[in-house]
Each structure stands twice: as C-alpha cells, then as structure tokens.
Amino acid sequence: MLFSPTGLSECLREWEDLEKGYQQIQDTHRLYKQKLEEVTKLQDKCSSEITRQRKKLKELSVSLKECKNSHPAPKLSLEDVDAITEIEDSINDRSNAFSEMEAFLPKKNGLYLTLVLGNVNVTLLNKQSKFAYKDEYEKFKLALTVILFVFSFTCRFLFSYRALDALFNFLLVWYYCTLTIRESILITNGSRIKGWWVFHHYVSTFLSGVMLTWPEGALYQMFRNQFLTYCLYQSFVQFLQYYYQSGCLYRLRALGERHNMDLTVEGFQSWMWRGLTFLLPFLFFGHFWQLYNSITLFRMFQLPECKEWQVAMCGCSYMVLFMGNFFTTLGVVYQKYMNNQEKSKTL
C-alpha cells in the first residue's frame, strides 16, 4: 500500500527520500550509459576481429591446399600430413565457433528485412530474449492456426459471403507475411530454419494474395469449397506438426543435442521417428491435396468461360508447394532410412 503523507513534516521527509532516490536513479542511469558505450565498443571490436580472423583463415586454407597440391603425399612427411589435417579440422571448428559468437553480435539485416524494416538492429543480445522471442513465435503460430481453423470452418459450413471469404484470405496474407518477417528475425538471431520452409511461406503469401483478388464468379464458386476444405485440413495438420516439433525440440534441448533456437528438426532418433510415423500419412495426404488443387485449377483454366488470371497463378502456386513439400518430406524419410542402414552396419 502506498504511503500518503498527512502533515507538512511528513511531506518534507517524503520529499527528502524522493530526492535521495532520484540521485540514485541518476547515478544508476549514468552507469548504465557508460556500460552501454563499453558494450558497443566491445561489439565493434569483436565483430572486426572475427572478420579479420575469417579472412586470415580463408587465406590459410588456400595456402594449405596449395602446399598439398604442389607437394605430393610421398614428399610430405607423416607429421606434415597430420599437421595439415589437424589445422584444417581446427579451421572448420573455428568457423562454427564464430557463427555462435555472431549470434550475439549486431549484424546487418538481410535484403528482405531491410526492405520491410529498414536498417533497424533486430539482433537480440542475450539468450533469455532469444528464447522468449522464439517461444512467442511458436505461440503465435499456434494461436493463428486455431483462428484460421475456426474461420475456414465458418466460411465453409456456416456463411457463404464473398466479403467474409476476402477477410479470411486477407488474414492468410497477413499471417504468412508476419511469419516471413519473424522467421527472418529468428534467422538473424541464429535460428537454423530450413531454406525451403522460409520460401514456402513466401509462396503461401503470394497464393493468399492472389486468392484475395479473385473476383466473384462461377469459377470462384467452383473452387471455393475445395479451397476452404483444404484450409481446414491444413490447419489441422499444422496443429499436429506444432505439438510434434515442440515435443522433439524440448527433448533434444533437454538432452543438449540441439541448438536452442532451432524451429525444425534436423536428423532423427528412434523415439522421434515413432511420432513422425504417425504424422507422415497426414503430411503426404496434404501434399497430394495441393497437387489435386493444382490439377483442378489447370483444368478450370482450360474452360472457355475462364477469363481470370488468378486461376493459372493459383494453379502454379499449388504445384510449387506440392513439389517443394513432397520432396522435402521425402528427403526426411530417406534420411531416416540411411541412418537406419548406418546403424545396422555398426551392429
């Protein structure tokens, strides 16, 4: 409960206490600015030293290769070969260490973030802030997945209004645009997001934008229910993916086997494969549904009454999504198969 002075003497004493507190705040803020300047200088020094080391290491790697090429193995002693191999291994390890260091240093934004945000520093400089932002990203995806599921269900089964469909597509455009920005910030802060999944959201943004501009008509109504049903299924699968990936990452981080800023799983263990085996049929069914959407749209484009350019653009977008998602998921299955083959050989 706040203290409320009632007399003049109490007011004077309260003012003296406030004066002392104000002086302490000034001293603390002055120290804060001093430390902040020191941190900025250390950041600049560390960044320049890393850049210098990288350049020197690159030159050294070229020199070592020239040494091996100009001096065939028989002319090099065993000690020389071992020394060169050891240095090359250390260079690779040092490159990885520099990447970890740079995750906590300010860096220039990529082209996309520069276009969207300008030259604003988005690097989070401590682990707590990085984890909090990543956790917020995951919760954002989960919340929007639920909202999109309810919204698509409403449009599909309850109300059939073009204005409501447009609002749904606008929400999809905003959602995927936001994902691309947040993922770019996460990548800047050291997250190891697979390249296709980033590009996948750019294609989804484009697809949602094209659907938003598709005018009301017979062709739109012909594809509407199929599109909304697909969106329902996609939200359901994303919900399953969220819990699968979050569970895998939690166990991997607890075991100390995975980077704390990872969003997707790279490499599998037996306990992870059991959950993925359950998820794979849903994933492949969704991928082939994208192919079905693409074929449907291409057939609609061949109709004589088709005048809308959106039909062909949506068909191409779904084809790109199918190919990227299908071959990426197939690569995951192949990776697991090869891991099992290697394990069987070692047993």
Mean pLDDT: 82
Low-confidence stretches: 263-273
Radius of gyration: 28 Å
Strand fraction equals under 5%
User: Helix coverage percent of residues?
Assistant: over 70%
Q: Say how many strands there are.
A: 0
Distance between the termini: 69 Å
- Shape assignment: flat
Following the backbone from N to C, one meets helices and strands in this order, namely HHHHHHHHH
Structural class assignment: mainly alpha
Biggest pleated-sheet summary: none
* Count of alpha and pi helical runs: 9
Layout of secondary structure:
Layout: H1 8-70, H2 78-102, H3 111-117, H4 127-158, H5 162-188, H6 195-213, H7 218-255, H8 270-301, H9 310-346
Helix pairs in contact: 1-2, 4-5, 4-7, 5-6, 6-9, 7-8, 8-9
Protein name: Ion channel TACAN isoform X2
Family: Belongs to the TMEM120 family.
Main location: membrane
Give an overview of the whole structure.
The chain has 347 residues and is mostly helical. The chain has nine helices and no strands. Helix 1 runs antiparallel to helix 2 (78-102). The longest helix is centred in the N-terminal third of the chain and has 63 residues, at 8-70. It is flat and about 75 Å long. The model is unreliable at 263-273 (pLDDT under 50).
